[in-house]
Amino acid sequence: MHQKARDLAKKFIGNGFEIGDRFAIWAPNSIQWQITTLAGQLAGAVLVPLNTRYKPTEATDIVRRAGCKALFHIGEFLGTNYASMSTTIAVDHHVNLNSVDDWQAAEVSDTDLDTRIGAINPDALMDVLYTSGTTGAPKGVMCTHEQNLRVFDTWSRGVTLSADDHYMIVNPYFHSFGYKAGWLAGLIRGATIYPVPVFDLDAVLTMIQEQGISFLPGAPTIFQSMLTHGSRQDFDLGSLRCAVTGAASIPVQLVKDMKHMLGFDEVYTAYGLTESTGVVSLCQSGDEFETIATTSGKPMLGVEVQITRSDDTIADCEEAGEIWVRGFNVMQGYLDDAQATAEAITPEGWLKTGDIGHLTKAGYLCITDRIKDMYISGGFNCY
């Protein structure tokens, strides 16, 4: 993978990409998605992932506002022709992910590539993920190389991900959960990655059995569907070791069933948002079932969490208020939107999450509500 990423990184440079230039990917989970992202980032370019549910007008808007120079896309996926839709989006380069070898570029040497890599500073932007955040308008969240690597080094250690794990990624790569807590964390720890482009329960159970999947993060509904599958007993799920999930509240029984019926040794819940580079807090190994189900763990080391009343004063222990976050994980801001950035981050560096919660006496974070009206459909925020 490293050599393939280096070879493709040379094509980025050979096509005039400079540090800070942006490229978009519009495709489902795949190894080539990972290679292309790494290639662009080796060249100093900034990833802008596109939701595969976007309509052409939505994708066009984000590509235009992000100023992307290239759009990497799949051909057809689930009856949608992304190649055809991509031709309507104005960029310098349209590249099919399955045909990156055909992307023509000026010749670039290994020395030139190494010089470029050496010129990338830790505080250079690594990606811009568009999110609805705490309002309904998509905004580009800017995060650096240092932030991403530090957050997911911390996260992956916390959830005990290791080079021995076979990590199945069912969460979409255009989202932090699939991209950052997914293959990036796996790369940091040296785990073996198995991308899943479409969640099909029978196919997932078969892969767990055949590939010895040990690490499986996902929404609570994924584990509920596994538990209620009529033929679950026909599959050998003995390799499963660790699950990571998250929601405002998870039934305690689900956590118990994940351990006792699905066989997970460890079950972690966590909380984060795109604006926090994906992570704020995380449960710990050995936490009680009820703690895992009803809290989102403790803040990561180096991250502060403050519960704030509507008058901006600090709430008491176990008193509900807006969750504010400060630390190395707070985004650099929203791309080309100083006003929205100022509304989201205080002069003292506190990120206003828009989520309501409280801290327990033991320091665990409980999420209870949102300030804005929102519901979640298929894992996506809807306003």
UniProtKB/TrEMBL annotation:
This is AMP-dependent synthetase/ligase domain-containing protein. PANTHER family: LONG-CHAIN-FATTY-ACID--COA LIGASE, MALONATE--COA LIGASE ACSF3, MITOCHONDRIAL. It comes from marine metagenome. Residues 2-335 form the AMP-dependent synthetase/ligase domain. Gene3D superfamilies: N-terminal domain of ligase-like (3.40.50.12780). InterPro entries: AMP-binding_CS, AMP-dep_synth/lig_dom, ANL_N_sf. One of its GO terms (molecular function) is CoA-ligase activity. The lineage of its organism: unclassified sequences, metagenomes, ecological metagenomes. Pfam families: AMP-binding.
